[in-house]
Design a protein that fits this description.
The complex is a heterodimer of chains A (264) and B (791). By secondary structure, chain A is an alpha+beta fold. Chain A contains eleven helices and 14 strands. The chains are: A alpha+beta (264), B alpha+beta (791).
């Protein structure tokens, strides 16, 4: 990797001011994507602002019946949190299925959501559960957050501080992993909420998206059969070595059906 | 000695240092004054080098030297095996210089060597090198490489053909097809694999300014072979001035047999700058530059009579060599492949032709099994298809065509003479262990849960224990393939064993110590096994082709025989008895009919303190060396049975049971044998379901250049294996052992694919290629003629 300056601020506010001062600085959370990128010399930030020291970015709390998770909370912490398990079990299940134990112990929810990797699991939960992404500047609704492959609504100098998930009536998550990387080839989160059914898909497109076909089908009947019966169009879906767009389209309804079956 | 001798599952002596992080791998070695090398590699698959400007790099911070093809004044990397084409002409053998001079021929080809005080500085400097390339269209497809109009890799190799070789009796095979009641045909691809040893390749070149001696520390399965190839052919350094050390090596699977040009580069450049140079591959370099395996495209036809007896076999194969000929590449798809096409069957007439082609890809060479997995896959897919077509039960069809157990030695129509085997017993044991008969119950149970169960079988044979020198010499090998073993008995009775084989995961330090513990009757703790250093070991051909025990172990046994013979004479002298009356058993010499006895330790001490000694007849000391050249290959074989369950909604195949019953001859350490089978079967399941190397056909870029896209088998992909052995002894080596390193990878892939096809048969699926990924299985189901009727 190339040389860079390294900073480890104690608070999110200090991190934000460091970012403002160093135009070419990057934030590092768990580093699961950024560190390999640096090692391959594919990025050359002037400075790294490590959020690992910012205590105000960590922790899980029940809030307004839902759950709020600090940006620097690791996947393993979410997976084993009793509060998460009893509030939104699907979220704990999702976090417990990310990567491998090493990744789950280093990777963070904020890092994953801010990165918007097309194969990441968390974006399906954020979008499917209608979460609110809180930053040092504002609160962003999930529906307005994911903009494309590795693209989000975050602006320069903006840091995710926490994500708030409202409690659904029911929710389930199921993914078909890439056999090599075990990222999601297709991951589907289904949620039955007071304002209707939400279905979010990750892995299949450039970034997480909601599936209207499945929301309509499951709105009629929140059942595995209804999900399996939904016809998903393959237009615009990812097509690579591991999965064609047609296969992904098929898997979206299969994973949705399994997510419904698992929903609690 | 029952607890540490032959047949005991002794825990591996080497594991304490490996499991506690105390192994010594190349990257753990640091020489005084050491520098670091980075190799600038081609980003293109095929391009002319128009210009290389290294001026800025040469003056970059910490840079000691920058070398390109224009600076390189030594020899090319040689090929160790010459094949002749059908018309008698020798194969096309293009030059392979460690640094490209005018063209690059695969992504990762070597363009410049940058040596600096640190690796990071060398890498920084590499970015300052300006290479002007003129890109050309590449050819990467094995099947298309010899077609007209495609890109040419070498001007001398017309239609990219390296050789066009054949074996067997074409007229006899054609005649067999003429009288066949049924002919089964199949087209198969045996896909390219990337070996993925845990330790990436690495090398340190060192030059002693006082003596002018060179030392190469390298990740090698055969340091003496590297000394010979690099010393004699590339750098012209006499063996007496070149030491090659391969210390602990973290896996090879064949990929560390070959002489790689990085080894020559660091040694050559170390002499130039008179400082040691270390190079360690990054994982991406391993994917891009380690010799790959397999990569065959084949058509095969089997002729059967009305009763299902095999009459004849015709095979036509194209094998990808990559851009250059790696050390043993030419022999893999010929003498390690086509000679195995009789398999375990009495097929009387066989004809095979093999065309080797060059492409703009990294060289392909031996990878666990090397040719024999390809032959086994072809035969066992073909036999399975014949059973389906003729309606003959697939187990009965195999049994009907097995070489009878009383027919050994058995001469095949493709050169080999099998010494021993019992395919009926391994088959019966595997059928029983896998509960073959109960599959329909399990299939019905799976169907209730919406899953497709299938079971598949492979009855296989391989030739290993490589190999009789005279035989391989007549087939084109440019080396002998004997092995050496030395036993040094120390004055107080402990023993050092020196072997020319190399352990990089096989457990030689334990297995060979067991041999000696058993033979000399001394505790295993008193025995150390030394390997991997040309300055310590008399000579050696190394470890590959499942040869270490059958050939290297036999050399140790021969050396041990010499030790016992000499020690017996010393003991006879001490006990004032006739040599003929002295018996050696369990570490003690006795005289028949008396109570006289001497321990092995007493005799050893006498050999080094020869006060009371037959000095006029016998030299002092107790150290012996043997060179053992085998009389034949060895022929392990057996039966693998795989059971899978497929989720038709996702195409995911789960291996639910795997049974391997192998005849590997005499087993020294059952635990190590079982571990070898586990590893081999895992790699076989990897090939069948998960692994594939892919190059982009237009750009020649490696698409599976990391673990994000190349699927390695992992523990949760595997069931608990059922492993058993059934031994028929090798008849021509002193141990009776046949070898176990490769059987798992050879026997398993067709068992897995036959199981997948068995599961999918109700949906009208007749063919699937390796790896049977979820995508491919799902696509095959979509294309299948019917849907499983819903219960």
């Amino acid at each position: 990797m190339y040389d860079f300056g390294y900073h480890r601020p104690d608070t999110a506010a200090d991190a934000a001011s460091l970012l403002t001062k160093n135009g070419e600085a990057k934030v590092v959370a768990g580093g699961m994507t950024l560190i390999p990128t640096l090692k391959q010399r594919l990025a050359q930030p002037s400075d790294l602002v490590d959020l690992g020291g910012a205590a105000d970015l960590k922790g899980i709390k029940i809030e307004g019946g839902g759950i709020t998770i600090g940006a620097m909370t690791t996947h393993a912490e979410v997976a084993r949190s009793g509060d998460v398990q009893k509030t939104i079990l699907a979220l704990a299940v999702l976090a417990g299925g990310i990567g491998d134990p090493q990744v789950r112990n280093r990777g963070t929810i904020g890092g994953s959501v801010a990165n918007s990797d097309p194969g990441a699991d968390y974006p399906a939960a954020v979008l499917g559960l209608g979460a609110k992404i809180r930053t040092n500047k504002r609160e962003i609704a999930a529906d307005n957050f994911f903009k494309g492959m590795f693209e989000t609504a975050l602006q320069d100098g903006e840091i995710i501080t926490a994500i708030h998930f409202p409690k659904p009536e029911k929710a389930g998550y199921c993914k078909h992993p890439n056999p090599a990387s075990r990222y999601a080839i297709v991951g589907v989160l289904v949620a039955k909420t007071a304002s209707g059914v939400r279905v979010a898909v990750t892995g299949a497109g450039p970034c997480a998206f909601r599936s209207k076909e499945l929301e309509v089908a499951l709105g009629g009947s929140f059942s595995a059969d209804a999900a399996k019966g939904a016809k998903i169009k393959s237009d615009g879906l990812n097509n690579d070595l591991h999965a064609t767009a047609a296969y992904r389209a098929h898997l979206v309804s299969v994973m949705a059906a399994r997510a419904v079956a698992a929903a609690g | 000695m029952a607890d540490s001798g032959i047949g005991a599952s002794v825990k591996r002596k080497e594991d304490f240092r490996f499991l506690t992080g105390r192994g010594t791998y190349i990257d753990d070695i640091n020489r005084p004054g050491q520098t670091c090398a980075y190799i600038l590699r081609s980003p293109h698959a095929h391009a002319d080098i128009v210009k290389i400007d290294v001026a800025k790099a040469k003056v970059a911070p910490g840079v000691i030297t920058v070398l390109t093809g224009a600076d390189y004044d030594k020899g090319g990397v040689p090929c160790g095996w010459q094949i002749h084409s059908k018309d008698g002409s020798p194969m096309i053998e293009p030059p392979h210089f460690p640094l490209c001079k005018d063209k690059v021929r695969h992504v990762g080809d070597q363009v410049a060597l940058i040596v600096a005080e640190t690796y990071a500085l060398a890498k920084d400097a590499a970015e300052l090198i300006d290479v002007t390339y003129k890109e050309q269209k590449p050819i990467v497809s094995t099947g298309d490489a010899d077609k007209p109009g495609v890109a040419q890799v070498w001007a001398a190799a017309k239609n990219n053909t390296c050789y066009d070789w054949h074996i067997g009796d074409k007229a006899a095979a054609d005649a067999a097809f003429g009288k066949a009641a049924h002919v089964t045909k199949i087209d198969l691809v045996n896909q390219r694999l990337i070996p993925n040893a845990m330790e990436p390749r690495a090398a340190i070149g060192d030059f002693d300014r006082a003596t002018g001696d060179y030392t190469l520390y390298t990740t090698s399965q055969n340091p003496h072979v590297i000394r010979l190839l690099m010393g004699a052919f590339v750098l012209q350094i006499p063996e007496s001035k070149l030491r090659v050390v391969a210390p602990d090596v973290g896996g090879g699977f064949g990929s560390k047999i070959f002489h790689y040009s990085e080894e020559a580069l660091v040694t050559w450049a170390a002499g130039k700058i008179q400082r040691p140079i270390k190079w360690t591959a990054e994982r991406s370099e391993s994917f891009m530059t380690d010799a790959h395996g397999r990569d065959h495209v084949s058509h095969a036809e089997l002729a059967l009579d009305k009763d299902g007896k095999f009459l004849g076999l015709r095979v036509s194969t194209k094998a990808n060599m990559g851009a250059y000929l790696s050390t043993f590449a030419p022999c893999v798809p010929t003498y390690l492949y086509a000679t195995l096409l009789a398999g375990v069957y009495t097929t009387p007439a066989i004809y095979a032709e093999v065309k080797a082609v060059f492409t703009h890809t990294v060289p392909v060479d031996a990878y666990r099994g090397a040719g024999r997995p390809e032959a086994t896959y072809l035969l066992e897919r073909l036999v399975e298809k014949a059973a389906r077509e003729t309606g003959i039960d697939r187990v009965e069809l195999r049994r009907k065509n097995f070489i009878p157990t009383n027919a050994f030695p058995y001469q095949t129509p493709v050169a080999l003479q099998y010494d021993s085997g019992d395919y009926f017993s391994t088959l019966d044991m595997a059928l029983k262990a896998s509960d073959w008969a109960g599959i329909e119950t399990r299939r019905a149970e799976a169907k209730k849960h919406g899953k497709l169960r299938g079971i598949g079988i492979s009855t296989y044979l391989e030739a290993c224990g490589i190999a009789p020198s005279a035989v391989v010499g007549s087939l084109g090998a440019r080396a002998g393939l004997y092995e050496t073993g030395s036993i040094r008995v120390h004055p107080t009775g402990s023993v050092t064993v020196f072997t020319g084989t190399h352990s990089h995961g096989q457990g030689h330090e334990t297995t060979f110590a067991q041999l000696v513990s058993d033979g000399l009757g001394i505790p295993i703790e008193s025995i150390e096994v030394s390997h991997g250093d040309t300055n310590k070991i008399p000579f050696g051909m190394g470890t590959y082709g499942s040869r270490s025990l059958a050939v290297g172990g036999s050399a140790i046994v021969k050396a041990m025989d010499k030790i016992v013979k000499k020690a017996t004479r010393i003991a006879a002298h001490l006990m004032e008895a006739s040599v003929a009356d002295v018996e050696f058993k369990n570490g003690t010499f006795t005289v028949a009919g008396t109570d006289k006895s001497k321990t092995f330790g007493e005799v050893a001490l006498t050999a080094y303190v020869p006060h009371n000694y037959p000095i006029t007849e016998l030299e002092p000391g107790l150290e012996e060396t043997a060179f053992y050249d085998p009389l034949n290959f060895t022929y392990p074989g057996g039966c693998h049975i795989c059971e899978v369950e497929i989720d038709p909604d996702t195409g995911v195949t789960k291996v639910v049971n795997f049974t391997a019953v192998d005849d590997v001859g005499r087993v020294i350490n059952p635990m190590i044998v079982e571990g070898q089978v586990h590893g081999g079967v895992t790699q076989g399941i990897g090939q069948a379901l998960l692994e594939a190397c892919a190059y982009d056909k237009d750009s020649g870029q490696l698409l599976t250049g990391s673990y994000m896209d190349y699927t390695m088998p992992r523990a949760d992909d595997l069931p608990n294996f059922k492993v058993a052995t059934h031994a028929t002894m090798c008849t021509h080596n002193p141990l009776g052992s046949k070898g176990v390193g490769e059987v798992g990878a050879i026997g398993s892939p067709p068992a897995v694919i036959n199981a997948v096809l068995d599961a999918l048969a109700p949906l009208g699926v007749q063919d699937i290629s390796m790896p049977a990924t979820p995508l491919k299985v799902w696509q095959a189901i979509q294309a299948g003629s019917g849907r499983m009727a819903a219960e």
